[in-house]
Design brief:
Helix 2 packs antiparallel against helix 3 and helix 2 crosses helix 5. The protein is about 50% helix and about 25% strand. The chain contains seven helices and five strands; from the N terminus they run αααααβββββαα. The protein has a single domain, classed as Tgt2/MlaC (Nuclear Transport Factor 2, Chain: A), CATH 3.10.450.
């Protein structure tokens, strides 16, 4: 009896004080995100909030800027986050909804993994994350094409959130990071990058 109570106490302690992710929790979050994309309506703030409860654009934006982020002023950070969110909504939400509505997808796996990646410094850090993999039968003009999508989730103060997506073997955050670094160099700094993003949004 004492042994059983000791095990129960350990389980309660672990669930209370660790970043434990229960099996299926990450898949449930991805399903919630996909439903949000499908129900997205342009100009409807409620549909945007439903997506961004799961898709953490603040963390995604910070990781996309990587070691430049701590060097930015508060005003630059605010301005960058604002245009980053507007651009992602404009370029991705409606298209993602159409993609998942029109193509059959199947959840393949949910795995806890350790991965080295950049957070907000030049040095890679070891991250404990969850990868949820989907297989998609993507309809093309010549037939069905098989695609894999991997959603990466991490524990944040607000809970388990999606912070990166990998499709066609490429990470969105890495792609953003490369684009922003090139534009920053070409346009002469953070202000030039932000202005370039605003121009893209207004196209």
């Amino acid at each position: 009896m004492k042994k059983i109570l000791a095990i129960l106490s350990l389980l309660i302690f672990t669930a209370t004080f660790s970043n434990i992710t229960f099996a299926g929790e990450a898949q449930s979050k991805v399903e919630q995100l996909i439903t949000g994309f499908k129900n997205y309506k342009k100009g409807n703030s409620g549909s945007v909030k439903n997506i961004e409860k799961v898709l953490n654009l603040d963390f995604m934006a910070q990781r996309s800027m990587n070691f430049h982020w701590p060097k930015m002023s508060d005003n630059e950070k605010k301005e960058f986050l604002d245009i980053f969110k507007k651009l992602v909504e404009k370029m991705a939400y409606e298209k993602s909804g159409t993609y998942f509505k029109n193509n059959k997808y199947t959840f393949v796996s949910e795995k806890r993994i350790s991965k080295k990646d950049y957070l907000l410094s030049r040095k890679k850090e070891k991250l404990s994350i969850t990868a949820v993999k989907l297989k998609v039968d993507y309809k093309t003009g010549t037939g069905i094409k098989k695609e894999n999508i991997v959603f990466y989730l991490i524990k944040r103060p607000e809970g388990l959130v999606v912070f990166d997506v990998e499709l066609l073997d490429g990470s969105l955050v890495k792609d953003y990071r490369n684009q922003f670094s090139r534009t920053k160099r070409k346009k002469g700094g953070i202000k030039g990058l932000i202005n370039s993003m605003k121009d893209k949004y207004n196209e």
